[in-house]
Amino acid sequence: MRLDLSILVPYLGFLAQGALLTAQACGLALIGSLIMGALVAIARTSSSKWLRRVAFAYVDLFRNVPFIVQLFFFYYGLPELGIYIDAFTTGVLSLSIAGGAFASDVIRSGILAIDPGIIEAAEVSGLSRRTTFTKIVLPIALRTSIRPLGSVFVNLILTSSILSTITLNELTGTAKIVASDTFKPFEVYVVLLVVYAALTYIVSILIGLLHKRLNRDLIDGAVA
What we know:
It comes from Paradevosia shaoguanensis. InterPro entries: AA_ABC_transptr_permease_3TM (IPR010065), ArtM/GltK/GlnP/TcyL/YhdX-like (IPR043429), MetI-like (IPR000515), MetI-like_sf (IPR035906). By secondary structure, the chain is mainly alpha-helical. Helix content is 78%, strand content 0%. The chain is built from 10 helices and no strands. It starts with 11 loop residues before the first helix and ends with a helix.
């Protein structure tokens, strides 16, 4: 079988638009996931039993239900209740909620790993619990959790391919259209495979560099 990629040349612009839409959705979903994850992590480490129960229920629900089911619920189910959301917003919202469930575990672990002496020192200095948490605990937890949070982001990129099922022409959605137009699915999906692999690899490298930069003092101390 001869691999002929020249048939994709006229569709490069169209595929680039899909890639851009994927990048936009994933970028917004990353921000949403971090916000959701931080809020849920705070609730899960709260002294309030009610908050902890709600947070655990959220995590258990969205970690144990297939993402495509969640996506269909928001896109096809909510209109039955009179709530209409466009495909792009639905995709970002679904990715943010699902990603937040996983991010909360990572951030919570980062919070619990903080040396209690740091918190005690902040309290002795007269800082309120809220200030201590927002200015000291959470930043440290996020800094030390960069690498595992990077895995959550990579998973968001891969999961975003499912958004094509709600008529959103992101990277996978545009690839489906091109494959249908050209009758060359092998060539199209070979390129798609390479693009996703390259994208996630680049993101993983960037996350690693960011981790080293933010934790340079800890790494230098360990080497010394």
